[in-house]
Amino acid sequence: NVGSNNAQHLDASSEKNGSGNDQEKRVITIDSDGKIVGGDFNKISSGSNNNKPKTKKGSHEKMDERIAKILKSANVHIDAETASQMPTWENVVLQYGEKPIIYGLETCEPYREAVKPQDRMVGPAGIFNTGTNLLFQLMKGNCDIKEAKNSTTHREPKQNGVRWQAPWGKHNPPSTHRYKNVAKMWGEGINHTAFFPVVMIKDPYHWMGSECRHHYQTWWDHKDGNCPNLIEKRTTDEDVPVGAGVKYALGWVQYESLTDVWNKWYEEYETQKFPMLHFRFEDLLFHGEEVTKIACDCVGGVFTNHFRYIEGSAKENGLPIHNGAY
Prior knowledge:
By secondary structure, this protein is an alpha+beta fold. It has helices at residues 3-7, 65-73, 80-83, 89-96, 108-114, 132-142, 174-177, 204-213, 258-270, 281-286, 288-298, and strands at residues 27-28, 55-57, 62-64, 78-79, 121-125, 143-144, 195-201, 218-220, 244-248, 251-255, 277-280, 302-303. Helix content is 27%, strand content 13%. The strands form five sheets. A three-stranded parallel β-sheet has the order 5-7-11. It has a three-stranded antiparallel β-sheet with strand order 8-9-10. A two-stranded antiparallel sheet has the order 1-4. The longest helix is centred in the C-terminal third of the chain and has 13 residues, at 258-270.
C-alpha cells in the first residue's frame, strides 16, 4: 500500500530550494508546467498517449509528471535520492483509484439553504493522524467565504469562514461532544449547527503506523519494536486483542483494540444526520486542488485562481497542534 508512507516524503524528506547542503547532491528543478527540467533527469517528453501518465526515467529512477506537479504547487525542489522514493502514478491509482472518493456532497445544498452566508463556517474533524491540519492549511490559503468577515454572531480569526477545527473539538466523537463540549481553541461562541465539518479519514493500515510514531491521546500496550501490537502474546488457543483507550475532552473511552478505535470513531460520524463531507487523507495529497475546491464550493466559498499547496509541514504554522483540539 503506497499511500501515506510514500506520501510523507513529499513533506518530511523533500528539500526546499537552497535549504539543503551543496555537497555532491543534485537538485531537480520543476518548471511551470510541472515538468522536471534540471538535475539528474532529462526533460519529460510530451508523449501522445493521454491515458498513460508521463514519467521521466533515469538510469535507475523515474518520477511521474503528476507527482512532479504536486511538488511544483508546493514550491518544492527535491534531490534525486528523494525523487527515486516517490510513488508512481500507477501505484497511486492501484491503491486509491483514479479519482477522489467523497461522501456527503448531497448535504452541501441543504447547508447553504439553512445557514446565511455570513454565518457559514467550514473546517476539519477527524481522529488523530488523519490530515486535519493539512486540510485547514489548504482551505485557509485557497478558499474565501467572503461574507464571513461580516458575521455578527462570532469572531472570525481568518476573515474567510475557514476555521481550525470543529467547535466541539476536531478529535472528539460527535455524539458525545457536539452541543456538549466547547473546544479550547476556536470553540467559544461558535454555533455548532452553523459549522460544516469536513471529516478526514486515513486508511487504517497507515493510520496505525502513524499512531505508532505519535499516539497523542490514544493509549495501548505496545513497544517501538512491536507496534501496533494488536494481539496479546498467545497464552491460549484464542487470539485476544490488545485493548486501547482514548482520552477525549469529556472523558476516557475504552475500545477492544486499536482497530476498534478506528472503526468505532468513524461509525459515529456515519450515523450523524447533520451536513458534512468525508475526505480521504490520500486524496488531499494526490488530488489536493480538486478536493479543496469541492469543499469550498460546498459551503458557498470563492476558490482561488492560483492554487497553492502548503510548504513544509502542515503542523508548523504557529498553531497548537493538539493541545487545544478538545
